[in-house]
Fold these 2 entries.
Entry 1:
Amino acid sequence: MSRAASSDPFFDKGLPSNVEAERSILGAILLDNAVVNQAIELLRREDFFLDSHRRIYEKMIALSERGSVIDLVTLSEELRRAAEFEQVGGYTYISSLIDGVPRTDTIEHYAKIVKAKSQLRKLITASNQIIASCFDEEDDPEIIIDRAEALIFQIAEDRVRQGFQYIGEVAQRRLEQIEQMAGRPEMITGVPTGFTDFDQLTSGLQRQDLVIVAARPSMGKAQSVDARVLTESGWKTMGEIKIGDDLASIDGRPSTVIGVYPQGVKQIYKVTFSDGRATECCSEHLWRVHYRSWPAPRVLTTAEVAALLRRKRYQKRLWIDMVSGDFGHDEPLPVDPWVLGLLIGEGDFNSLRFSTASDIVLNRMTAELEPAFAINHAGRYDYRIVQTAGHRRPERYGVWPNPLKEELKHLGLWGKHSKSKFIPELYKTANRAARLALLQGLLDADGWVEKTGSVRFATSSERLADDVVEFVRSLGGWATKKSKQPVYTHDGERRQGQVSFVINIAHPQPASLFTLPEKRARAAAVRKRRKMPTFVSIEPARQVEARCIAVTHPTQLYITDDYVVTHNTALALNMALYAAKNGNTVGIFSLEMSAEQLVSRLLCSEARVDAHRLRTGYLNREEWARLADALRRLCETQVYIDDTAGAGVLEMRAKCRRLKAEHNLDLLIIDYMQLMSGRGRIESRQQEVSQISRDLKGLAKELNVPVIALSQLSRATETRSDHRPQLSDLRESGSIEQDADVVCFIYRDEVYNPSDENRGVAELIVGKQRNGPTGTVQMAFLKEFTRFENMWKE
C-alpha cells in the first residue's frame, strides 16, 4: 500500500459498528421478553454487525413468533437445532450478553445507534459498488447513475420507522394546516359499529374475528402511469397523481383524488377520436358514451366500445362528453391575454411591431396598453409599441428597458420568428376567461370564418398550431390540424411555398371566439349541430405499468390526454370513529393515505364539512364552529394511526402488542391488505396474499380483538348485468374468503344506474358470516362528507 493510501482515514478505520449497543439489545431481550416487540419494529437481522449477533437475533424472533419464552435455555436449544450454537460462542458468550445491560424498559436508544451504523455500512457498500461500476466502464453512465440512485434510495427508505401517532396530535396538526390555508344495546356483544341494522345482523364486531370489507376501488379506470391527467395546477402523469390532488373537472365543480390504485402491468390500447385527440387505457377502462338513439349515455368499458365499433351502425357515431373549460389558475399574467394573442398572431418579436387594418383592434390595443405605452404608426398597416415616457428618463443614465419587451423575454417569445412562435405554458394553465381572451386575440389577428360557418386559423409554426388545438379543446371545442404546402410561380419557375398549418375549429358558440364585429357577424352565435369527438379506432399499443384513480366528482369523470373526458373506503373509518367514541381503543394501519389525509377525512365526516372546502380552508363561521367541535371530540377518543407504507404482518404484530400493552387495544383496521408485504420469498402474489390473510387471522386471535381489513375486488363485477359483488370477486386469492369470519361488500347502485331513487343509497352486503346470518343492509351515503349513516325509516 502506498504512503498516500495508508494516510487516508478511510483505510485507518474499520466498518462503522457499535458492538456494545448490539449486545445491550440482545441482553435486554433476554432479561425482558417484552422488548422484543420494540426490536422487531425497529431493527432487521442485517442491521447487526457481528454475524453471531445476527444469528442470535434471528432465533429470538423465531421464538417470539411461536410464543415461546426467550431465555438462556430456549435460545441455546434453538441455536443447537440450527447447528449454530458453537458458531455464536456457545453458552459462555450467550450468558455474557446480560452482563452490564444498562436498562431493559426500552431499547429505542440502542436501536437508533445500531440502525445508524448499519446505514453507514450500507452506504459504504453502495459507494464501493458505484465506484467499481465507474471503473469497469461496462455500462452507459445514465445506467450507472440510475443504479446508484436506486441503491441510495433503498438505504434512505430503510430507517427506524415511525409507529402509531395519537389522533389528537395529528388532528391538531391538520387543523393548523387548514388555518394556514385561509351506551351499547344489550344484543350487541362485540364492538359496536354505529350501523344499527348491521350490528343487529352481526351482534357487533366480535373479538378474534377477521372482517373483510371489500369494494371496487375505482371502477376499473386504469391508464398507463405516463398518461396525463389535468389538475388545477396543470398536467400531471398518472404516476405522479396523489391522493388529495385537486383535478380540473368537466364542468367546474370540485373534483379531488381520493384513491390511487396500482394495477400492475397491463395491455394498453390507444383510443383515437375524430378530431385527432387520443389517449391510452386498458380494456376495462370506463367511458361515458353517447349515441343518438340512446335515451341516456351509457358507461361502457374500452372492450365494449371496441366491440360496438365493429358494427357499421355505430362507426363514427359514438361520442364522449366535452369539457366546459371552467378550470385553471387565477395568477396575475404579465401581459394581457388578448394583447399577447394578437402579438403572437400579427406581431414581430424582433421589434415591438404589429400589423392591423382594423381601427377596432388599434383602439383596443391602445386602451389595453395605456398609460405605460403608446402606439405609433410605422407605415401602411404597421404600428410600433413604444414607452409613453420614452426610453430615456430624466436624471437616469442609460436606456430604460421596455417592460413589455422584458416580459416577452421572460415568456420565451422575444426573438421568435413566425415558424417558432408558441403559447407560453403560464397561459395554457390559466383560467377559462384568460384562455378565451388569448384565443380571441389570435383569431382576431389570423382567424377567419368560411361561408359554411367553419372557423379557421393558419400559421407557419407547427408548435403554435398544436397550442391552438389544445386551447380550443380546453374550451369545449373540436379542432383538427392539417398541413398545407402552397405552390407558386416566380419568373416562370414553379416553386413550393412555406409549409403552413391550418386549424379547423368547431365550437358550440363560434361567435364567442372573436371580438371583431365583422368576424363575429360571419360566425354563428350558436352552432346548430355541435361537433363531438367520436370514437374512430381502438388499437393495441403496448404493455406497461398502469394505475387507476377514484375522484370525488359526482359524475366520476376526469380529464386526460388531449382533453379527453373519461370515467374514473370510508365505511371502515365511520365504524372506527363510532367505536372510539364509545370508549374503545382503535388502531389504524393506513398503508395508502398519510395520517394527515386520514384525519382530514375523519374531520369531514364528523363535522359534516365538504371535503373540498375543508382542504382549501374556505369555511364559513358555522363550519369553523363545527370543525372545532369535531376536533374536540376526536381528541377525546383513543384512536392511533400508523401510516408506514408497505408494512408487513410481523411489523404490525410488534406494534399492536405494544399498543395493546400501553392502551388496551379493542379494534384494529388495516387499509388495505393488498398493499401489505408478505414474509420471505413468495413464488406468486396469490400465495403472498394467502399468507397475509392467514397471518391477519392469527393476529386477530393473538390480540383478541376484531381486525377489519379492507380489500379490493376484481373487475368481474363490471362484466355482469347485476354488478353486486360476490365472494368469488375477492381479488388475488380465494384464501381471503376461507380465512375471514365475516366478509362484507359495499355496493352503490347509483354508480351504474343513476336515478333519483338510488341516489345517496349504499348497500352493505354481508356475503359470509361464520357464526351468523348473511344479508343486505341499506345505508345512507353522504358523498360530500364521505360519511355513511343509518337509513332513515318511517
Entry 2:
Amino acid sequence: MVTWTAPAALWLLAAVPLVWLAHAIARTNFNARQRAIQAALRSLLLAAISVALAGPMISTSSSRASVVYAVDVSYSVSSAAIDAAAKRIDDLNAALHPSHFRVVAFGATAAALDGTAALRQLAHADPGAPGAAGTTVDRHGTDLEAALGAARAELATGFVPRIVLFTDGGSTAGDTDAAVTQLVEAHIPVSVEPLAPRSLGDAWIDAVDLPEHVPAGAPFTATVRIGSQRETQAVVELSSDGHIVGTQSVAVSKGMTPVAISAVLDSPGPHVLHAGLTIAKDPLAQNNTLAKGIWADPRTRVLYVEGTPASAHYLANALTSSGFEVTTRGASGLPATEAQLDPFDLVVLSDVPRTAIGAPAMSALAGWVEREGGGLLVAGGEAVFGEGGYRKTAIERLAPVTFERRDEPEVALILVLDRSWSMAGSSMDLCKAAAQAAVDVMTDEQSLGVLTFNDQFAWDITLRNVGKNREDIRQKIASIEPGGHTLIFPAVEQAYLALRTAKARAKHVVLLSDGRSYPDDYEALVTKMVAARITVSTVAVGPSADPELLRNIAKWGKGRAYQVADAKELPQIFVKEARNAATPGFDEKVIKPVVKTPGFLAGVDLSHVPALKGRTATILKDTALELLATDDGDPLLAFWPIGLGRTAVFASDVKDRWASNWVTWRGYGPFFGAVARALERRRPPAAALELVAGPIHGRARSVTISMEARDVTGRSRDLLRPLAEVRAGDQAAKSLALRQVAPGRYEATVVANAGDPLAVKLQDTGAAGAPGVASRIVLPDTAAEYRFRPADESALRAIATATGGAWRPGPEALASGSGDRRTERRPVWPAFMGVALALWFVDLVLRRVRVFEPAVARVLL
C-alpha cells in the first residue's frame, strides 16, 4: 500500500501539458521526432519530481520479532539473579532466533549493553563502579519508567515488539504507571520475569505506619515494619525532637515483622519521627533508620459533669492520660448557654440527676450538639432513668437510646409498715392511704404483700396477684390498726423469706418506720436479700425515727432512703416506689459485656473485659449503632450521629459502683479514650495543609502543596492570597503564592531535590491563623534501594496483564503468531528523485546531440 506524506505536491503534474505546448511553439531546428522525445523526457522529469516531492511511502506487513530484554542490575538484586537472567536470555534467543534483540541494563539509569557477556560482567562488578563495556549504570536505585522507556527506544521499527522485564519490582523513582500506560497505547506487550533480592543476612526498617490523627499528649501506636533475611533479636527505638518517645525489644523472624510501639508527642504541631533499629552483626547499617513526618493535633477539651464528685477522678485521670484536657464539675456545673459550651469538644454527663440540669442548660446542650457539632457521652446511673430522669427530654432526643425498659417485668412488692402506737391517728391513716395508692398504680399481673409490725409481725396481706384481689387488698389495708412497740428486724426477715422463692423479675421491699428499734445484724440480712436480687427502700417518718439505720438499710439494699417530717408526703413516695418497682430503672447484677460491632473500639483489647455490676435500663433506637450489649441482649454502649454532632450512651456507670472492676482494668483508659475520640467535635482547621510528593525523575521531584481554608462553621473561604514558606534542605526559605483551584482550595507546585527534606508552612495571611499553625514536611528515603524486599509479584503481574505480556514467559509466549504483524513503512521518493536526475542527464545529452537525422545533414549542419 502506498501513502503520501505531502500529496499536495502532485498538483505539479498539471504543468505537464505546458511542457508539450512549449515544444509545439518553440522555434528549434531539431527534427520532429527528437522534439517529441525531449518533450516526453521533460514531462517524465517533471512527473518524477512531483511524485518525489509528494513523499510516497510503501507499507508492507512484517512478522519479524524485535525483542528487548530489560534487566534490573540495581543493588537490591542479587548477582546470582542477574547471572540467571543472562542465561535465561541466551536460552530464549536460542529457541526464538529473533530477527532483532537488545539487552538493556537498568538501575536508577538505563543503558544498552552489547550482549549477555556484558550483562554478566556488570553483575559481578562493584555496585558503585562503572558497568561492563564502558557503560555506566547507576545501581543505587531502580527507575522502572526509565527502564521501560529505554527498552522501547531499542525496539526495531516495523518489527513485532516484545519487551521482557527482569526485575524485583521495587521502583524507587519514576512513574511506572505512566510508562505502562504508554506501552498499552502503543500495543507493546511486556512480559515479566521476577528476580530474587540480594541476600546478605540483613535486617532493615521497611516502613513506619502512623494513625491518621495523633493528638498531642495522647498515646498512639506506631507500627514499625522490620524486614529481615534471618531470625535475630533487635531493639526498635522511636525518637522525636531529640528525645526517645518509645522503645521495644523484639524477636525478629525471617520476612516481615510488625512491631507496635506506643508513643506520646507532648506538644501539638509538626514533628519528625525517627525509627531506628539496633541489631547485632548487621552487614548494612544505612537501612536501619527511617524518618517520617507527623502532625500532632491540639488536645481535645472535655467537660466532665459527675453526679458523684468523689468518684470523678477515675474517668478524669483516664482521659487525661489519654491526651485529653479535662475540666471536672459537679452535677450543677453544666453551662447554661452555647457560648459557655463552645470551648469544649465533648461533654460527659455521668449519673447527673435531671433536677440538676435546668431548662436553659438542656436547651443549650442540644443546640451545641446539633448545630455546633459537639460530642455528648451519657453514662448511666440511678438518676437518668424514667420519668424522673431523662425520659422525654432533649437529652433522650439526642441520645441513641430511650431511657425505658424493653418490656414490663413481673413485680413482687412487699410493704413492711410500722403499726406501733406512735403511728396512731393521722399518720396511720396517711400510711394506709399511701399503701392503697401504691396498689392503684400496680398492674393486674403484678404481686403485692403487706406486712405490718410492732413488737410482733403480722401478714395482713400475703404476697398475691393484684389483678384478682385489688378490692380485697384495699379493704385489708383499710382495716390495719396501730398498737405495741417497734421491732423491725423480724418483719424485714419475713419479707425476705417470702420473696426469695417468689417468681418475679423485680423483687422490692419498702420499709416504713417512725421509731427506733433494737440493734441487730441488719447488714447481713440485707446483704442476703441483695444476693437474692431483692432491693430495699426505706422511709423514715417523724423526728423519732432512726434515720441512720434506715439510710444504711437502703444503701445495703441498693434502694432509696426517704426521710419525711410530714406524713402527708407518704402517698407520693409509695406511688413512686411502686412505679419504680414495676419498671426498675437499673439492674444490679453481674453483666458480661458482649461485643456486637467493634466499630471505633477495634483498637481496644476487649478479649479480657471485666464484668460490670449493674446498668441503666435503655432501649436502642432504630438507626443507632450498638457496639456493646449485655449478655441478656440489652444495649450497653450505643452510638449515633445527630445533626452535626455525635452522641453515645454507656448504660453502666464509669466509676467505682457498677464499674468497680473496670476502673482497675488496663483497658479502662483506652476504652473511654476511644469513645471520646469517636465523639469529639470535629473542628475544621482554619487551614489544612497537605503535601503530595510526585515521582522522582533524576534527582528532582515535584511536590504539590494544597491548602483547604474553612471558617469555624466549615464553609469555604474564597479569594484569599495565601503564601507558603518553602525550605528545601539547608537552603534559605522562599515564599510561594498559592492559587485558588476550587472553593476553599488553593494549590501550588514546587520542584525540589529529591534527596533533601522539604518543609512547608503557611505564613500568616489571615487564612491560616498564626504562623506555623499549618506545617508539613516531605522526607527523602536515601536507603530505599537497600530494603531487600521479596519481588513484588502483584505489581509485576499487573504490568504483564495490563500490557498483554506473559508471566515468566517461555519461547512460545514471545514468538510471533499469525496475528502478530507490524507494518513496515519504507520511503520511495529517493527512487523517483534518482529517476528524475537520470532523465535530466538524458535531456542534457539530447540538447547537444541530434538523433534521427542523415549523416550528411549532420555534417552540413
